[in-house]
Amino acid sequence: METRDKLFTEEQYRKQLAGYFQRCKQLESSIMEIINAEKEHIQLYSAPNSNVAYNKIVTLFGCKLNSFLTKYSVGEDMAKLKDDYNNLVKTLTNHWTITGMYVQMLWMLSIGIMLDTDEQNIRILSSMINNENVNDALYDFLIKYRLTDWERCSDTVLFPVPYQSTLSIISSNNQSKELSIQKLEKYLKKEWYRGHSDCAWHDDHKYGIRHDGYWSFESGALVKVLGLDDSSLKGLPYYPYDMVHWNDIK
User: Fold this and answer.
1) How far apart (Å, rounded) are the C-alpha atoms in residues 177 and 102?
2) Taking 80 as the threshold, does the pLDDT of residue 250 lie above it?
3) CA–CA separation, 186 vs 175, rounded Å?
4) For the chain, what percent of residues have pLDDT higher than 70?
5) Cβ of 24: how many Cβ atoms within 10 Å?
6) Could you tell me which Gene3D superfamilies the record lists for this protein (predicted)?
7) Geometric angle at alpha carbon 160, from 159 and 164, rounded to 5°
8) Centroid of chain to Cα 110
9) Over residues 224-241, mean pLDDT
10) 100 phi and psi, to 5 degrees?
11) SS3 string of 85-147?
């Protein structure tokens, strides 16, 4: 198996996946314990059981998402990752907030588009965005691709660094697809990674402890939505080429 993100070895990724698997099992067991206690009207914590369960489910989603990224980075088959994605949506349902989780939702929308996920999954994600009253042009553009009845239409992004550039990529497509791909290449080479310097995962590969992989999933989604020729992006760091083309490289 050939790794997609070369910053860790297959052995490192496999060890990491084993850790995520154990952590997810522990969280699932703890959540089930709380659910059963609630049925018996037994309070397990100083905080309400429901609050503790909610937080644990959010943590579980994060663990599963990290595992998903790691599986993609190590080179796992895309068909298997489609099942993992469906499970991610199920776990996230009713447990998302815009506070601290913007990037995770952007990844979920983008991955869903690249994997041709069921419309219902996109509706679940968009419903959570709507419930949070989030106005974000990149979210809106991606959702509108799958849900023509999506009514939000913002012209700004919540986080201009680095995502403002994606709006220029989108608008340039009306003028020239070649211009859009040039701007996307610049975004990947000069803006995307640097623009996430405040994220906990930034530069994590340097410490050799944990590294899920660095992927600009929105770039892949934009290529698919805009119908761009991404042959020049193949092999470029951060670009999820295999995910964009999962259905034609089987």
Assistant:
1) 28
2) no
3) 17
4) 99
5) 18
6) PA2201 C-terminal domain-like
7) 125
8) 7
9) 98
10) 75, 5
11) HHHHHHHHCCCCCCCCCHHHHHHHHHHHHHCCCCHHHHHHHHHHHHHCCCCCHHHHHHHHHHC
Instruction: Map residue 179 onto helix, strand or coil.
Output: helix
Closest CA to 12 of 240, 205, 216, 199: 205
Task: Tell me the fold of 80-244.
Answer: PA2201 C-terminal domain-like (1.10.3920)
> How far is Cα 138 from Cα 113, in angstroms, rounded to an integer?
13
Query: What's the length of the chain?
Result: 250
Residue 109 and residue 117: Cα distance in Å, rounded?
10
Q: Give the pLDDT of residue 1.
A: 78
Tell me the C-alpha distance between 58 and 175, whole Å.
42
- To which H or E segment does residue 234 belong? none
Residue 197 confidence (pLDDT) above 80: yes
d(CA 25, CA 31): 10
Least Cα distance to 170 among 218, 113, 242 occurs for 218
The per-residue pLDDT for 249 is 54
Q: Tokens at residue 202, please?
A: 């930034």
Domain spans, the chain = 80-244
- Cβ neighbours around 120 below 10 Å, total: 10
Measured CA to CA, the distance from residue 141 to residue 155 in angstroms comes to 10
Instruction: Find where tokens 């402890």 sit.
Output: 209
Q: Convert the pLDDT of each residue in 134-188 to its tens digit.
A: 999 999 999 999 999 999 999 999 999 999 999 999 999 989 999 999 999 999 9
Locate tokens 């499970």: which residue?
87
